[in-house]
C-alpha cells in the first residue's frame, strides 16, 4: 500500500513539473520576463498586519492562460492574464529584493489571496471575492532575496470580468481577465480612484 501511494504522488508531482516546464517554455514569448524584471517598480506593500515587503516582481504565466500581455508601460507596468471561465491556471510570480529576506515574508502562502472585482462599466472597484482564493501551489527559494511563488488560479466561481490580483508588492500590476480576450479600457486608478 505504501508503494502505491508513493507511486501516485510521484506521478502527480512529475506531471505538475512537466506542465510547469512546458508552459514556461511555450508562453515565454508572450511576456518577456527579463523585460518585466527591468521595468518592475519597488513598492512598499503590507500584508494584513505583517511587515512591509520591498520587492521587484516579474510574472510568468505557466499554464491555462489564453494570452498574457503588458497593457501599460511606465514605473508601474500593468500585465493582463486572460483565462477562460471554469478553468484553472498557474502563474509564477518572482519576488526579488536586495533589502529584504523574502523567505521570512508571507507572500500569500498562508490563507490565499482574494481577487478584487473591477466594475468596468462604472470604472471603479466593485468588491473582493471572498469565496475565491488564489492559492500557492508551490514556491522556489533561489536565495533569501529571490523567491518564486507558483499561484493556482481557479475561475470556476468567478463571473466573466476583470479582477485585480493583489499579490504582495504589485499594487496595480496584475490583472486577471476571465473571458476570451484582453480588456484594453481604463482602470479606476487612471482616475485616482483607489477604493
SSE layout and pairing:
Elements: H1 2-27, H2 33-39, E1 43-46, E2 52-63, E3 67-72, E4 78-83, E5 88-96, E6 116-119, E7 124-128, E8 135-143, E9 146-154, E10 161-164, E11 174-178
Parallel strand pairs: 4-11
Antiparallel strand pairs: 1-2, 2-5, 3-4, 5-9, 6-7, 6-10, 8-9, 10-11
Give the overall form.
Answer: globular
By DSSP (H or I, 4+ residues per run), the number of helices equals 2
Quaternary organisation of the protein chains: single chain
Provide mean pLDDT, rounded.
74
Q: How much strand?
A: 35-45%
Total domain units: 1
The span between the termini is: 53 Å
Largest sheet: 6 strands, mixed
Strand line-up of the largest beta sheet? 3-4-11-10-6-7
Rg for CA atoms: 17 Å
Helix content: 10-25%
What is the number of strand segments?
11
* Low-confidence sequence ranges: 1-51
**Element string (H = helix, E = strand):** HHEEEEEEEEEEE
Specify the structural class.
Answer: alpha+beta
How would you portray this structure in words?
With 195 residues, the protein is an alpha+beta fold. It has one domain. The chain is 17% helix and 37% strand. A six-stranded mixed beta sheet has the order 3-4-11-10-6-7, with no helix packed on it. A five-stranded antiparallel beta sheet has the order 1-2-5-9-8. The protein is globular, with a radius of gyration of 17 Å. The N terminus is likely disordered.
Summarize the structure.
The protein is α+β, with helices and mostly antiparallel strands and 195 residues long. The chain contains 2 helices and 11 strands; from the N terminus they run ααβββββββββββ.
Amino acid at each position: 500500500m505504501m508503494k502505491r501511494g508513493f507511486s501516485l504522488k510521484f506521478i502527480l508531482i512529475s506531471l505538475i513539473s512537466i506542465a510547469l516546464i512546458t508552459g514556461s517554455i511555450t508562453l515565454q514569448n508572450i511576456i518577456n520576463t527579463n523585460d518585466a524584471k527591468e521595468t518592475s517598480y519597488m513598492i512598499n506593500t503590507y500584508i494584513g498586519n505583517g511587515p512591509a515587503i520591498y520587492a521587484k516582481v516579474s510574472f510568468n504565466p505557466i499554464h491555462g492562460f489564453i494570452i498574457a500581455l503588458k497593457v501599460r508601460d511606465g514605473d508601474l507596468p500593468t500585465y493582463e492574464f486572460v483565462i477562460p471561465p471554469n478553468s484553472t491556471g498557474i502563474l509564477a510570480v518572482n519576488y526579488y529584493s536586495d533589502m529584504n529576506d523574502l523567505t521570512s515574508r508571507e507572500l500569500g502562502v498562508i490563507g490565499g489571496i482574494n481577487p478584487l472585482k473591477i466594475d468596468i462599466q462604472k470604472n471603479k472597484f466593485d468588491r473582493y471575492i471572498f469565496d475565491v482564493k488564489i492559492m500557492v501551489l508551490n514556491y522556489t527559494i533561489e536565495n533569501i532575496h529571490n523567491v518564486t511563488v507558483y499561484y493556482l488560479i481557479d475561475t470556476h466561481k468567478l463571473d466573466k470580468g476583470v479582477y485585480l490580483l493583489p499579490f504582495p508588492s504589485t499594487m496595480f500590476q496584475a490583472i486577471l481577465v476571465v473571458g476570451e480576450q484582453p480588456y484594453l479600457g481604463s482602470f479606476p486608478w487612471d482616475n485616482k480612484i483607489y477604493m
